[in-house]
Design a protein that fits this description.
single chain; 369 residues; mainly beta; 14-stranded mixed β-sheet; 3-stranded mixed β-sheet; 4 helices; 12% helix
Length: 369
């Protein structure tokens, strides 16, 4: 996807030194209550596997012309955490060049620190300035709530129309539309129901940097951003590697019923090689999933299913590579990135990022195992 940017901005980002700052607009409903607020400190992050996928922390140091305070005290104050939203922008500068890149639309979740500096002036105590820290979560924070009544699809002909209805947010149709099966049963949580519809569309729902809901396709597709190391336009500072045993098992078991309703138990396990249950890895069993038992009605079918499941869970899953890059405000969580190293080129998905003031950008890129 990548955040909206011009080719000129891409050239500046990959071409060398540039300035980077963040300013922020604040909204209460449709009304903009503060504009171009400079930030003393800021950090934004994304996590592809998290329920609410993007978040941030910002610090505002404010000194008004009229001894006013911006520390929130009432429900409707500009920086209160009761439906107020902020739109931060990354401002890229280089010489005469200046471009604002939208970072997203966030709800204020919490004000963990709000402090006014008071001074005495002409016998009166006045506010000299305010320092306010905000914890931010993307708009899915307002969707991650239970439905008061059980939801049913309003329209089976369009998954996108149903996703729009459930999320109650504008959408950008990033994948083709599909129909909805009559058998669908929604989770009681609205955000979980949104993700059920996104799964039908072939991906995961996420908040885009323009404040709309999109769906990240499960299939990688073509890279949306190229990152290089080792040449004059290289922005990669370092690439690491990682490996985990999480999600790897060497034994499976299940309780089944045959066509007459009689129950039986079966097991299968790895007997040789590095994942043998008698080897150094030890025994790591996992139960056969209940939702895959519906059409198993004999012991031979169960043995075949267990063998296939064992093969599936005994392979090394995707690797996750920590990547440190020059700050690149184009990158969004879920982007497909091409990592061009001196020895090889790897394509993977950006599943985590951290972009903070005065720091290199940290990415986690998931590639096939």
């Amino acid at each position: 996807m990548t955040r909206f940017h011009t080719e000129a901005a891409a050239g500046v980002i990959t071409g060398g030194s540039f300035g980077l700052e963040v300013v922020m607009d604040v909204f209460y409903g449709p009304a903009r209550t503060m504009q171009d607020v400079p930030l003393e400190d800021w950090s934004f992050s994304g996590d592809y596997d998290a329920k609410i996928k993007t978040a941030g922390t910002v610090v505002i140091a404010y000194q008004g012309d009229f001894a006013d305070s911006i520390s929130p005290k009432e429900f409707t104050d500009a920086l209160a955490p009761f439906g107020q939203e902020v739109r931060p922008y990354l401002v890229v500068t280089a010489g005469e060049f200046r471009e604002r890149l939208p970072l997203g639309v966030y709800r204020i979740d919490e004000d963990p620190m709000a402090d006014d500096v008071e001074v005495e002036f002409n016998g009166r105590v006045i506010t000299h300035g305010s320092r306010v820290e905000l914890s931010l979560l993307d708009r899915f924070h307002g969707v991650d709530v239970p439905s008061r009544t059980p939801e049913k699809p309003a329209d089976l002909t369009s998954a996108w129309a149903e996703l729009t209805r459930l999320a109650r947010l504008p959408v950008t149709r990033t994948v083709p539309d599909v129909t909805i099966p009559r058998s669908i049963t929604y989770a009681r949580n609205r955000l979980e129901a949104v993700q059920q519809i996104a799964a039908l569309l072939g991906g995961r729902a996420c908040m885009r940097s323009d404040g709309t809901v999109g769906v990240i396709p499960d299939e990688l597709g073509e890279p949306s951003i190229d990152l290089r190391i080792g040449d004059e336009r290289g922005t990669i500072l370092s690439v690491g590697n990682s490996m985990s045993s999480a999600g790897v098992y060497n034994a499976v078991y299940g309780d089944f019923e045959d066509a007459t309703g009689r129950g039986f138990h079966l097991e299968d396990w790895i007997r040789t090689g590095p994942l043998s249950i008698d080897g150094p890895f030890g025994e790591r069993p996992i139960a056969f999933p209940d939702d895959q038992k519906e059409f198993i009605r004999s012991q031979s079918q169960a043995r075949t299913a267990l063998a296939g499941f064992l093969e599936q869970v005994s392979t090394i899953g995707p690797r996750e590579m920590p990547v440190s890059v020059v700050p690149d405000p184009r990158i969004e969580v879920g982007d497909v990135a091409s990592l061009e190293r001196l020895s090889s080129t790897i394509t993977g998905r950006v599943v985590k990022y951290t972009l903070a003031k005065d720091s290199a950008m940290q990415l986690t890129v998931r590639v096939a195992g």
